[in-house]
Amino acid sequence: MVFSSALVSPALPLFRLTQTSSPTLTLVHSPLRSHLRPLPLRPPRRLSSSPSHVAAAGLPMEELVERDWSFLDADPSDTQRADKARRIIAAANIKETGSKVLAALPTADFIDRVVESAPCELLVAIHESLFVLAMIKESHDRVRCWQGTIDVVPEKFVPFDVVFVCYFPGMGVSVDQLLSSLSRKCSPGARIVLSFDQGRAAVEQNHRQQFPDIVTFDLPDRIVLEKAAMEHSFQIIEFVDEPAFYLAVLRFHDQEK
């Protein structure tokens, strides 16, 4: 299992995810049996280690702050959640042979569904949260996990044929900046799928107020998205803006190829 980011060494060793009786997460470094102190599941999440533990794990910092992304986890009362996920994945039109797929800020549940329903050659997940990445890696060791933004993804993995932007409001960039970055990492004809299964209103009316440190942008309306898409050689091929569902699918046209 390998995680990498500006904060975590590219050679961070294998960790095993263990659950204690209390609501905490412990990451156990299997080869050296180095234990990191418990990581609370509710904010503030803070991962603290002694200098010796940090050195053993390859971490360049004595303390890592883990923000809580659990507000994106599945709501048990949302009986349509699975159908929405299938609709999002189907919109990507993933080819079974040779496809390279990137998922930005996915939930572990979403990765489960991608793996089950859309076989691909390569699946890369990027997230700010080491907790989320650990959950993904625990279930799917073949998924490549990287901590950070789209720009941290190694060049050896590009170009991507499909990019799922699972929670754009938490990516910390404008839609113009996002598409500018993706235009350098996509193959001709690649599909970008921006989605949120709770809809745009949930972001604007709830998330921006409750999680201002994480949620810094709204989901783009069609006019804003079209303008950014044209600037970076993307075309909108599907746009759905329903009260409890948002989906925008863009196709990349690399004019230099």
TrEMBL record:
It comes from the Eukaryota. GO terms for cellular component: chloroplast. Gene3D superfamilies: Vaccinia Virus protein VP39. PANTHER family: EXPRESSED PROTEIN. This is Uncharacterized protein. It comes from Canna indica.
